[in-house]
Design brief:
Shape: globular
Oligomer: single chain
Number of helices: 6
Strand content: under 5%
Structural class: mainly alpha
Order of helices and strands: HHHHHH
Largest sheet: none
Amino acid sequence: MNPAPAPRLVAAVAVGGALGALARWGLGEAFPAGADEFPWATFAINVLGSFALALLPAFAVVRRSRTVAVALGPGVLGGFTTLSAYSEQARALIDADRVAVAGIYLLGTLAACLLAVAVASRLAGPEPEGAVE
C-alpha cells in the first residue's frame, strides 16, 4: 500500500486544478458553441493542454520540484483539459443529427492531441532522470 501523499502535493493539485478549471470555463464562455456547432474552444483546450502536458518535462523547475510538477500537470492541465466536455459535445452533435461533424470532432481531437504530444515531446527532448525535491 502506498503512503498518503504529502499535504503540500494535495494542495498543489487542488489549487492548480481550480485554476485550470476556471481557465477552461472562461474560454468556454468566451467562445461558446451551440449544440449543432463544432466545439472549437474545447478542441483547442484539449490540444493545447496535451501539448503543454507533454512539454512540461522540458522545464527545469518542473523536473526539480514534485510540487510544481503536480500543480501544473494533474492540477492546472488536468483541470484545464476535459474528456467529459469532449464526450458531451460529441453526443450533442449526434443528437442534432450532425453525425459526420461529431465523428470529425472525435477523431480530429484525438489526432490533433496525439500530434501535439509528439511535437511537444520532440521539443522537450529526452526526459531527464526524475524530479529532485
